[in-house]
Model the fold of this input.
Amino acid sequence: MTVRVLLADDQALIRAGFRMLIDAADDLTVVGEAGNGREAVTLARETRADVILMDIRMPEVDGLTATRAITADDDLAGVRILILTTFELDEYVFQALQAGASGFLGKGVAPAALLDAIRTVAGGEALLSPKATTALITRYLAQPLPAGTPSEVDSLTQREREVLTLVAAGLSNDAIAERLYVSPLTAKTHVNRIMAKLGVRDRAQLVVLAYQTGFVRPPQSG
Done:
């Protein structure tokens, strides 16, 4: 199956470079290019792209606003958004994840890593490198909900809570299976059930929710 990719970046040169790289892969193809967030939303509906490479800083409508519009559209529920940022910890990255993006990459990423990232996100996985995730959590997620605030996490079984803890730590299904002595299929089933119960799109959203609710605490420095 060929993964359909939409490019959203206000710099034509960057789009051209990404298009050449992506179209050279046998299993990927670029189906459209957008120069701002408004065009990205329109083309997402017209092209039915599987993955959108979304720049954050764009004129007229920025990538964050476009991400919210796309993830809020039920007709685009299957679209995955991969945020592209000049800096690994762009101040808007976490907001983009909250809005429904499935991960983020620096624009200086190696070509092979970019292609793998597109495939990963298209497969429903989150793209959060351990280093970036730790820094992101430390910087943005150190503010859990006030004490006594009801949490959807309370509805999870003990095993599901174990799995959520491991997902929040950045472990893959295979790693979770190994840790809990279950099959990868069982681990995946647990993760999917947790996402359904908590009403989130993917693993990135699970990580956000786990820390926002205070279920998992940010790592302490020093």
Observations:
- Residues 3-127 form a domain with the Rossmann fold fold (CATH 3.40.50.2300).
- The beta strands are 3-8, 28-34, 51-55, 80-85, 103-106.
- The two ends are 47 Å apart (CA to CA).
